[in-house]
TrEMBL record:
InterPro entries per the UniProt record, alphabetical: MetI-like, MetI-like_sf
Membrane topology: Multi-pass membrane protein
Name of this protein: Spermidine/putrescine ABC transporter permease
Claim: Lipid biosynthesis is one of the keywords in the record: no
Source species: Pueribacillus theae
Transmembrane segments: 12-34, 54-77, 89-106, 112-130, 142-159, 199-218, 239-259
Entry keyword set: Cell membrane, Membrane, Transmembrane, Transmembrane helix, Transport
Biological-process GO terms, alphabetical: transmembrane transport
Pfam families given in the database record: BPD_transp_1
Localization per Swiss-Prot or TrEMBL: Cell membrane
């Protein structure tokens, strides 16, 4: 029996979804990027993007996204590794994931209270005779809160990769005389690279387009492409320039996905491909 018509029928809702909610919005953004604030067709938006102002903005966005991803990875990898060694690892993993269910705005406002001049952090400083510090509206507060928000999404794919790691390969590495660092560098890290790449994708890509955290935590002292897009659409009403920034942001996201795409068959019969 030929199942192709049935498979095609089942795939129709998927293609409709992709058309309406992926292709159509991107096409609409590209369309608006060719119009200026007066509604006239122009290429000036793309010319303006390569001006020093917007190029500096793009570099700043990538820099902050890189820092957020780096610190998330540095915390998430050892955390995921130790989670795989615990007795109730699924329970501990659930406790880490639960905060991601809380509304992002609520978590952001919570950190405004924590980092505020009269918050618990400055109260703790006072106990040690340290004067009040302005923690809010700094690069530190922005990166710290961003890492806190994104870190569960980095831990989960890495945890899955580590949990599926064949312990026989680790035993073989030790039997061959490799120390812990060599085992990690030559066995554990390469075999969990797909999990790391997935984690980088789900952190780096949304970190590029942050705008609410930059406004509430960084006080707009940190300006990203996401902030500029919001300003152009909601404040200046220059939808053309906002759409142009969104086009380049989308291209950057596709580029990151291409660079960090997972390789199939990375491990075959215990050999790293």
């Amino acid at each position: 029996m030929n199942n192709k018509p049935i498979r095609f029928l089942y795939s129709v809702p998927y293609f409709i979804w992709i058309l309406l909610f992926v292709i159509a919005p991107i096409a609409l953004v590209v369309y608006y990027s060719f119009f200026d604030i007066s509604g006239d067709f122009t290429f000036v938006n793309y010319k303006n993007f390569f001006s020093p102002v917007y190029l500096k903005l793009a570099v700043s966005s990538f820099w902050y996204a890189f820092l957020i991803t780096l610190f998330s990875l540095l915390v998430a990898y050892p955390t995921a590794y130790f989670l795989t060694k615990t007795k109730n690892k699924q329970l501990w993993l659930l406790l880490i994931i639960i905060p991601s269910w809380i509304n992002l705005l609520l978590k952001t406002y919570a950190f405004i209270g924590i980092f505020g001049l009269y918050g618990p952090i400055n109260a703790l400083f006072g106990l040690f005779g340290i004067s009040e510090k302005q923690i809010l509206f700094t690069d530190f507060s922005f990166i710290f809160v961003s890492v806190y928000i994104f870190i569960p999404f980095m831990i989960l794919p890495i945890f899955n990769s580590l949990d599926k790691l064949n312990p026989v390969l680790l035993d073989a590495s030790r039997d061959l005389g490799a120390n812990s660092w060599t085992t990690f560098r030559r066995v554990i890290w390469p075999m969990t690279m797909n999990g790391v790449k997935s984690g980088v994708q789900v952190v780096f890509i949304p970190a590029l387009s942050l705008f609410m955290i930059t406004r509430l935590i960084a006080g707009n002292k940190v300006i990203t492409l996401g902030t500029a897009i919001e300003q152009h659409f909601l404040v200046t009403q220059n939808w053309g320039m906002g759409s142009t920034l969104a086009v380049f942001l989308t291209l950057a996201m596709f580029l990151i996905m291409a660079i960090t795409r997972n390789e199939k068959g990375a491990v075959h019969n215990g050999k790293i491909k």
